[in-house]
What we know:
Elements lengths: L33 H11 L1 H21 L5 E12 L28 E13 L6 H67 L5 H36 L11 H4 L17 H21 L5 E13 L18 E11 L5 H69 L5 H36 L3 H7 L2
Antiparallel strand pairs: 1-2, 2-3, 3-4
Amino acid sequence: MSILRSAFAVSVGLSLTLASPDAWAQAEAKPLTLSRLVDEAGTNYPSIRISQEELNASSARLDLARTAYLPKIDANAQFNRGRRNNVFGSVLPQGVIPPMSGPVIGTNNGGTVWGSAIGLLISWQPFDFGVRRSNVKAAEADRDRSAAANLRTKLEVQTASADAYFAVLASSQALKSAQTAVENWGTLKQSIHALTTADLRPGADESRVGAEQAAASNQVALAQQALDMSLATLRKFQGALNSPITPPAKFLSEIPTRGSHDAPLVPSENPMLLEKKAATAENDAQLKALKRSWTPQFNLQGAAYARGTGAQTDGTRLAGANGLGPNVGNYVVGVNITFPVMDFVSIYAKASAQASMLRAAQADEDLATRTLQEQFEQAQAELRATGTIAQNTPLQLEAARTSLNQATARYKAGLAPIDDVAQAQRLLVQADIDNAIARISVWRAFLKLQYVRGNLQPFLDEVNR
Length: 465
């Protein structure tokens, strides 16, 4: 259960002002660090509280299962007024006719007398062939499953909150690049306007640049929408925290070191697999409890009681309140042995059903292991690909910038059409966006890899490096 072992104690400086994507600092508010964001999400997010209460409930069920080892003590007291008639013979066991005791008086008398009784029964089962032990083990496995589910939920929420931060950062970079494109188109439009005014270029060129600027403005609108949606997701995880966040420059300029993500996958460290293992153990313990339930039940019992009655054996009645106070006492001790002979039919059917559930849980555990291995290999592939892209995008950006300068110079010299400039400008915008989010994509892939491993601490250590 040490999957998250004091995770998210790292402090990383982040500052993105939620109201404005261009303002990356806000002096009047303390910046929200990544560790604060993740810790807040992992502590106060509603799904965390739900899983915590489910864990508390499973712990209470374990305490309940352990009470089966305690002796049972029943106490009873009663006072009544009724007729004293008693008949010879027996009736089948039932819960309707009140039991009678004493001799048959031979008459059907309508008189009533007082009666009273008080007693204490202690019953304890010294052994049960492992039924209680199996039930306790099943309750322990249920508690372990709830604990693993709590860790899994916390891991998912904390990972989602960190990814939401990176989504905001990526959206902000895309918006920044789109705004730069609009400004570049505006500068180019002014230059072409001067040329068209001097009749050195056709007026259609200025119209074309205006259309491209409008298209770039649409990109700004879409990028702003993506940023607003990302911020909405981020606020969901912030809870009571309302501080701005500030991204450290390393997310835009560095990538995780190779040695921090070369460790192999250990499936048993992932809380999802721990949850599946606990479910298997719970079903196995329940099956053992069923198999051991068709056995004799031994109970050590002791009872002490007292009776009082206003009826006499000769048929007479005592006057007044005689019988209201118990005045005749008894006690008895012994062993009570019961055996449900015909229960084997229902127990066999229940055991067959439980065995199927156990096999299903084992198959689910195997599936979870394979799924984790698949996700791990996919995350490694994504990390390798994003790392390669992050190394290539600066070269693409520089080449696109050079191409735009050349196309612009050739256009001004009358050696190239406006289409060449527009194409070069679009390539530069795309290269700028790709370059801006390339390193962020590596960090997100690294986050995903550590999520699959079930431990975000290496990711946070790398962030704090």
